[in-house]
Design goal:
It is built from 7 helices and 6 strands. By secondary structure, it is an alpha/beta fold. It has a 6-stranded parallel beta sheet, with helices on both faces. Helix 1 crosses helix 2. The longest helix has 19 residues.
């Protein structure tokens, strides 16, 4: 599937989960997006458009500059300790464990964590359970949220690959 086309239903699915699981609206919701790859770049502006107060964490300084240029607050992913308690919603897009027990213990009560990363994910699930952190590991969202769109994206990607191979 085209990685960029795949981000659209994933972002919409994450927003749907947040709307269903949070006891507050996204308007004014202090939200942290972990990662500014294809999915983070697609998700952050959609959350902002819904009125969320969006911070995005990334490790590359160039990404941090782009995050600020996009109107979001930039946070370095290596310097999140002490800040995680400020968020109502955290959405992880990084398939590396950033939210271990120490980080999860810092979250404020009621914070929702949605992990969009493929396995192994970014959350210590056992620690989250022990600490009572509300978490959703939302794998395979494109096919669940928008199966027709996901199918068209797969078809388009296959055609593009075949075209590039000269078939």
């Amino acid at each position: 599937m085209c990685p960029i086309a795949n981000t659209l239903p994933t972002a919409e699915g994450a927003i749907q989960i947040a709307l269903e699981e949070l006891p507050i609206t996204l308007q004014g919701c202090r939200t942290l997006v972990l990662g500014y790859g294809r999915l983070g770049r697609t998700l952050a502006p959609r959350l902002t458009a819904l009125g969320a107060k969006v911070s995005v964490a990334a490790r590359k300084w160039s990404d941090l500059a782009w995050i600020e240029a996009a109107g979001c607050t930039a946070e370095h992913s290596g310097e999140l300790r002490g800040w995680l308690c400020a968020f109502d919603l955290i959405i992880n897009t990084i398939p590396s464990r950033l939210l271990g027990e120490e980080a999860l213990a810092e979250l404020k009560p009621g914070c929702l964590v949605i992990d969009l990363a493929s396995k192994p994910g970014g959350v210590d699930w056992e620690a989250a359970r022990r600490l009572g952190v509300r978490t959703v590991w939302a794998l395979s969202l494109p096919g669940k949220v928008a199966p027709v769109t996901a199918g068209k994206s797969i078809r388009s990607t296959i055609y593009n690959i075949l075209n590039e191979l000269g078939v």
